[in-house]
């Protein structure tokens, strides 16, 4: 019977939604238990949030001053130590998880499955390759497995759980060769792109950074996050942290509106798990229309203001 440990991702005392998505993925194995590991300097608030996720058996906390920042070199030895007795160790396929989980797998001497998007059985999983153009089935050898979960492929587990919270004491020496200097992060009043239920994205057809104001305006009307195609980012219209796609952020909002985006395969890979896709483009043959649920063919500078006006 599987027993799964999930490493919680958090920042500034808030649990990232990716953790609840990992719980959903873990649930596909019908495990004996799903435990969440919270590593922090002060874990109480984060642990309380994790305990509310349905399906979680226990929340294990490790409080150390060294855990004040999520440094993978510092966290990995602790995760590896805590993983004793677990059949699977999951982390999100985010910047946090991609940095941390390979170190954990190396310390444990076990295989890692990256970007897990579907669970077949306890040792077999599906994951995308070639920018999402193909899906491969991978089978890990018997024994413990470390995996990063492609969060766009799984909905967040519901709240309403009541897991117990237990402090964990780990006798593990931490490396000193890595130290925290500073964290620089963009600030926005809009919803976070990777967790927003609605996202409006603009492409190169906007023509300039100034023209992106109509994207921001529509997004504000919808209470949506704002994204962009790689072409728009490369053109300098918006910063690269707004890029959606295989080489940017892979997202799965309930509603995705693509404006002036032709639909290169790398972009489509990043949005294929969206609930409803709406495309606005003057080219009726644009690839984006092949996957769009609703499409508007015409001048975006005319259609977008009309759409915003219709929203009231």
The dominant shape is elongated
CATH uppermost class of the largest domain: Alpha Beta
Mean pLDDT: 93
The low-pLDDT segments are none
Report the sheet with the most strands, covering strand number, pairing sense and barrel closure.
7 strands, parallel
Describe this structure as you would to a colleague.
- Belongs to the ETF alpha-subunit/FixB family.
- GO terms for molecular function: electron transfer activity; flavin adenine dinucleotide binding.
- Keywords: Electron transport, FAD, Flavoprotein, Transport.
- The chain is of the alpha/beta class.
- The protein has two domains: 3-167, HUPs (Rossmann fold, 3-Layer(aba) Sandwich); 198-310, 3-Layer(aba) Sandwich (Rossmann fold).
- Helices cover 26% and strands 26% of the residues.
- The protein contains nine helices and 17 strands.
- Helix 7 (265-271) links the parallel strand 15 and strand 16.
- 45% of the residues are buried.
- The mean pLDDT is 93.
């Amino acid at each position: 019977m599987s027993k799964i440990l999930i490493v919680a991702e958090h920042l500034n005392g808030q649990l990232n939604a990716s953790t609840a998505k990992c719980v959903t993925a873990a649930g596909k194995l019908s495990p004996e238990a799903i435990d969440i590991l919270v590593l922090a300097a002060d874990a109480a608030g984060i642990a309380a949030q994790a305990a509310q996720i349905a399906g979680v058996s226990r929340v294990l906390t490790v409080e150390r001053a060294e855990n004040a920042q999520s440094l993978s070199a510092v966290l990995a030895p602790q995760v590896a130590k805590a993983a004793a007795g677990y059949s699977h160790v999951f982390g999100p396929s985010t910047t946090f998880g991609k940095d941390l989980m390979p170190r954990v797998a190396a310390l444990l001497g076990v295989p890692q499955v990256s970007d897990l998007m579907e669970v077949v059985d306890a040792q077999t999983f599906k994951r995308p390759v070639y920018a999402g153009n193909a899906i491969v089935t991978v089978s890990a050898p018997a024994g413990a497995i470390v995996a990063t979960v492609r969060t766009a492929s799984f909905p967040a587990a519901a709240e309403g759980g009541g897991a117990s919270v237990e402090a964990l004491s780990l006798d593990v020496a931490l490396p000193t060769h890595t130290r925290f200097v500073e964290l620089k992060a963009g600030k926005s009043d809009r919803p976070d792109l990777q967790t927003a239920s609605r996202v409006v994205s603009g492409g190169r057809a906007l023509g300039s950074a100034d023209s992106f104001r109509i994207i921001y305006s529509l997004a504000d009307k919808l209470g949506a996050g704002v994204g962009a195609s790689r072409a728009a980012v490369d053109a300098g219209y918006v910063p690269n942290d707004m890029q959606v796609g295989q080489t940017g952020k892979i997202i799965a909002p309930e509603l995705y509106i693509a404006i002036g985006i032709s639909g290169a395969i790398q972009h489509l890979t990043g949005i294929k798990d969206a609930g409803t896709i709406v495309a606005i483009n003057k080219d009726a043959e644009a690839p984006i229309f092949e996957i769009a649920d609703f499409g508007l063919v015409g001048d975006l500078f005319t259609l977008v203001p009309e759409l915003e006006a219709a929203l009231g």
